[in-house]
Amino acid sequence: MKNLLWYLIAGTKGGETRGRIIELIKNKPSNANKIAEILKLDYKTVRHHLEVLEKNNVIIAINKGKYGAVYFLSELMEPNMQVFGQIWAQFGKK
């Protein structure tokens, strides 16, 4: 998981946005519309990054496929939040 997080956060162009989304979901699970509103990002951009994070088992969606699906950290991600925090401290919050 550590290598995957390095890639998703520090190794790709959208890493900062994905890091911001992870931080938000960690503190307040939300739907895509709310995430876009809080982070002041385009809805389609948020949807793209949610799909990348979900595909890589970083987040999960409750009521997926329905309007207002809520995103949470995955069971795989929760024990790795310290690793994420270390990566985010180095490469995020620009």
Structural class: mainly alpha
Write the H/E string, N to C.
Answer: HHEHHEEH
The overall pLDDT average reads 92
How is the CATH topology named?
Arc Repressor Mutant, subunit A
Cα-based radius of gyration, to the nearest Å: 12 Å
First-last Cα distance: 23 Å
How many domain regions? 1
Based on the structure given, which CATH architecture is correct? Orthogonal Bundle
User: Roughly how much helix do the residues carry, as a percent range?
Assistant: 55-70%
Summarize the topology.
Blueprint: H1 2-10, H2 15-27, E1 30-31, H3 32-39, H4 43-55, E2 59-62, E3 70-73, H5 81-91
Antiparallel strand pairs: 1-3, 2-3
Helix pairs in contact: 1-2, 1-5, 3-4
Task: Report on this structure.
- The chain has helices spanning 2-10, 15-27, 32-39, 43-55, 81-91; strands at 30-31, 59-62, 70-73.
- Helix 1 (2-10) packs parallel to helix 5 (81-91).
- With 94 residues, the protein is mostly helical.
- The protein starts with a helix and ends with a helix.
- 57% of the residues lie in helices and 11% in strands.
- It is globular and about 35 Å long.
- A three-stranded antiparallel sheet has the order 1-3-2.
- It contains five helices and three strands, in the order ααβααββα.
- The chain has a single domain, classed as Arc Repressor Mutant, subunit A.
- A hairpin with a 7-residue loop joins strand 2 (59-62) and strand 3 (70-73).
Q: Which labels suit this protein?
A:
94 residues; mainly alpha; Arc Repressor Mutant, subunit A; three-stranded antiparallel β-sheet; 5 helices; 3 strands; globular
Task: Describe the structure concisely.
With 94 residues, the chain is mainly alpha-helical.
